[in-house]
Design goal:
By secondary structure, the chain is of the alpha/beta class. It is about 45% helix and about 15% strand. An eight-stranded mixed sheet has the order 5-2-1-6-7-8-11-12, with helices on both faces. A four-stranded mixed sheet has the order 4-3-10-9. The longest helix has 21 residues.
């Protein structure tokens, strides 16, 4: 087995894109993938397309891939990019396979995954991280960045060491002293994932529909109230402060289009990963998005009825059942 500088555990869209970009930049990358994905990568390689449309085809010789950690190389850095429900199991696998002290960078949705990694893999060094852009799998072995944004990580000796390598590879890593604030700032934006998953339309089309934006604004407003009660100040990840986002979303579409041009820098085909999960009948990460708002509210002796209802809808709606904006808002308001 060839040596690897970076091991990517979780070869979904994010893992393949970040790992592929690092490989494009000359980093020795090893992917741990399901058998179906591993076979595709071995046979045809990996294609990565950045937001500017630059496509790079990486032949199988540009990286290595395996179906488990038993014979994986011992990396300098591990990236954990599995879905949240698989975090504890994946972290335990890393702890069993890698030397103590190996740093693990979590590039996952939600606010709880770094704590899950620390609990399941105490010998490893957990680094909290975040992905602020959307990636889609255009075809097996082909991934594309479809929205703007950058990677983020807690400022640690590991992230300081690796930031230049990530930047050189075209996936800059912004470093933060308070990653909890960053994670909550991203979670507020990710409250659009279930809206998009139930709307069944591309992200840009959904965001240009004032009705769907009002649904998102209601979820965000409820989340912001919970964060105020908990004493959490979410980081500003857009040109607009988090507290202003609900008002911006509720504006008439012509005004919103002018003021939120950066938010609308989205490839026409982009949809949320939760949409893909619903369509495929897979479990979603709703418990780590709206569910996290509900849990934090309960910890403050409060409630978050719209976010709770969104959890229920995502968990109960049949795959392929889409909701218009008015219907969706009525369903959430019925329990508010």
């Amino acid at each position: 087995m060839a040596a690897a500088e970076v091991l990517v555990h979780g070869a979904g869209a994010i893992g393949l894109y970040v790992g592929g970009m690092l490989a494009r930049g000359g980093v020795a990358v090893h992917f741990v993938a399901r058998p179906r994905i591993a076979e595709v990568l071995r046979r045809q390689g990996l294609a990565v397309t950045d937001l500017d449309g630059r496509r790079t085809a990486l032949g199988p010789e540009r990286f290595s891939v395996g179906e488990g950690l038993g014979d994986a190389p011992r990396p300098e850095l591990a990236l954990l990019t599995v879905k949240s429900a698989a975090t504890a199991a994946a972290a335990a696998e890393l702890a069993a396979a890698l030397p103590a002290g190996t740093p693990v960078l979590s590039l996952q949705n939600g606010v709880d995954n770094p704590d899950r990694i620390r609990a399941a893999a105490p010998p490893l060094v957990t680094v909290a991280g975040m992905v602020a852009f959307n990636v889609v799998q255009e075809a097996p072995g082909s991934v594309r960045q479809t929205t703007g944004g950058r990677l983020a990580a807690a400022r640690t000796p590991t992230s300081l060491l690796w930031a230049p390598r990530f930047a050189a590879a075209g996936v800059p890593l912004d470093l933060h002293d308070d990653m909890r604030a960053v994670a909550w700032g991203k979670l507020l934006l990710n409250l659009n994932n279930p809206v998009n998953a139930l709307a069944g339309v591309p992200l840009r089309e959904e965001l240009l529909d004032r009705g769907y934006r009002r649904v998102l604004a209601d979820l965000m407003e409820e989340g912001l109230a919970v964060l105020v009660a908990a004493g959490v100040r979410p980081a500003r990840l857009t040109p607009v402060p988090p507290a202003w986002l609900p008002s911006l979303l509720r504006l008439p579409t012509p005004i919103f289009r002018r003021l939120a041009s950066r938010m609308l820098t989205i490839q026409p085909e982009a949809r949320s990963s939760m949409y893909d999960d619903r369509l495929a009948g897979r479990a979603t990460e709703i418990g780590d998005l709206c569910g996290a708002v509900v849990r934090l509210a309960e910890q403050q002796g409060q409630s978050a009825p719209r976010n709770r209802r969104m959890v229920e809808l995502i968990e109960s709606a049949p795959a392929g059942r889409w909701y218009g904006a008015a219907e969706l808002r009525a369903l959430l308001d019925a329990r508010a």
